[in-house]
Amino acid sequence: xxxxxxKKALQKLGLNTPEDFLYHFPxxxxxxxxxxxxxxxxxxxxxxVFGKIIGLKTGKAFVKRTPISEGYIEDETGRLKVIWFxxxxxxxxxxxxxxxxxxxxxxxxxxVLGMMNPKIETVATVPTGVGDSLxxxxxxxxxxxxxxxxxxxxxxxxxxxxxxxxLKSGILDELKDPIPDYILKTYNLPSLATALVWIHAPLxxxxxxxxxxxxxxxEVFFIxxxxxxxxxxxxxxxxxxxxxxxxxxxxxxxxxxFKATEAQAKAIESIMTDFRSGHAMSRLLEGDVGSGKTAVxxxxxxxxxxxxxKGQDFGRLQVAYMAPTEILAKQHFESFIQxxxxxxxxxxxxxxxxxxxxxxxxxxxxxxxxSRAQLLKWVENGEIPILIGTHALIQKSVKFKxxxxxxxxxQHRFGTAQRQKLAKKDKINxxxxxxxxxxxxxxxALTIYGDLDLTLLDQMPAGRKPIITEIVLPNERENTxxxxxxxxxxxxxVYVICPxxxxxxxxxxxxxxxxLTTLQTKSVVEExxxxxxxVFPEYKNKIGVLHSKMxxxxxxxxxxxxxxxxxxxxxxxxxxxVGVNVPNATVIIxxxxxxxxxxxxxxxxGRVIRSNDQAYCYVFADSKTQKTVDRLKAFKNSSNGxxxxxxxxxxxxxxxxxxxxxxGISDIGMEALKNIKMVxxxxxxxxxxLTNDFEFEKYPILKDKLIxxxxxxxxxx
Length: 717
Ligand code: ADP
Ligand code: MG
What we know:
The chain is α/β, with parallel strands linked by helices. It contains 26 helices and 23 strands.
């Protein structure tokens, strides 16, 4: 491999300094005692072998010309054929003669034993038997070896050797522990130097576990410190005091075409209590799809815009309401128009494409398009007190006269920097309300929302029929389609969710070859064609496709057509997850359901509970393992997103919380989330430390580390 390639690969992994390497932790530990010698293998059994790889090359399979990698693994007792379909890059990743560990099922073809699509990783040493020391420093027999997350160009083996070299370079004597000593003692955590040795070269499993615990605590502790500090700084600054109470907005709330739920009323009350407090609010409103967050936003916005700027008996305080997509921004604009008609309140809409103002000059019930310049002028001079929009709101050219309240919908869709840009538009900090429908476990919420107060909207508006969820077996597919046709005939619309966008690069697999389930997973593009051809031919031109590779404008246009009912059946990936309101869509089919986290499934299901009509969720799964069955049963039986998020955390582990990248937590930090006690301890210690030493004067190493973390964050955004 060329040096430059490797450099690039290392940069991609974020490995630049020796310290970065030391903080690149093994994803798991292998155990050499599980190994079998190649000579002793029997067809049909599952096995782990260690050996030297030879003759590895790319090629095309005999039938269908599928791209493959193939070669042999050799140990002193024999030679085993290995072959991978659809993974030609394997041959490029592993060089001839490399020592590997391979795991898979032994098959036989014409008397030759082989492994198809084995899991493979390069290893440091091939153990030759009991008593052989893998790391061999003290001559002690132990069989654990670390396995590092690989990426193209950097193997686990290479990482192992590099990290061992660094460990032995004496750097451990220089490294200073950022965690205060008293905390390590309280929770019985190993010091930094010890933990680094234990995590990269453990003699026993317990050492590795203790080290992982320390680093998991460390990460959650740092995040807590950062978030809490941000929160305290935010609260120190001057804020708008809004002296309104529930009775002041009673008449406004009475205008809603429904009665507010108790949960909504409580949420409104706690927000208004914050408004009166003299501190800038930072609150998260967490509620399932359809729980009515927009109405809470509207009622509290009303209390702000009917308040005067300080020391003035004219003018209005202003509200900015940001949504992640144009279609959502427009949806909120329309809801607000409904809530605010005839009150003489101007509402603006700003997106990348257009600007609108409500009401128009000629019709008090309608909006009108206006020029960007005109809109910006009216926002700046305060004539438009409510401005709703997309990212366009963040632009420097958008200036407010008295921005007192910022509402951010689906807040996780925005980066911290984007959120801050909107919140920091003015000298005075506005009150900040973030909203989300993404159910996450309590430990994760405590960690990533350490800077926010939490309000749950844990009640659905009355009159909603509970959604009917059915797990559909393959032989019931036809039946289910018949039921769906009845719904379509009655004028309803349907979502079909698939786990992937395109069909696999190469079609099909040879008979007798392993069943690569990924290749069978339904893709949006194919499934749309199939449904049109075989299942719903009568809706030929009314089937739409939506996925993340489409241009934003195309996505919006498809969503718009679905909203207008021009598209009856929308085949989509999970991009459809975010809160678009199409009350007429009452059926959702989820294909390959085992591939989604339960909380995510729940969110998808939430697409169809917008109206008072009976809604249906049909779940198709490709896998029939007990685990899949249990998970999907839990999904069928629970209508509580948080419960489902907890369930997945327990049963599938933190990795299943659909992408830790989204949450800005590393894999090891996610390990802490299974442990509520650890998360609470990190929180308590962070609070204690900040109360006693806000500037970390006694802990300069910690201070340094937090500054570095912060720089890293900005770097990525
Ligand atoms: P979300 O929390 O997903 O953002 P929305 O605010 O979009 O939910 O509300 C979903 C639908 O429920 C809207 O059509 C809204 O008018 C309606 N709604 C909100 N609150 C209530 C309520 N208390 N009773 C009946 N319907 C309500
Ligand atoms: Mg919403």
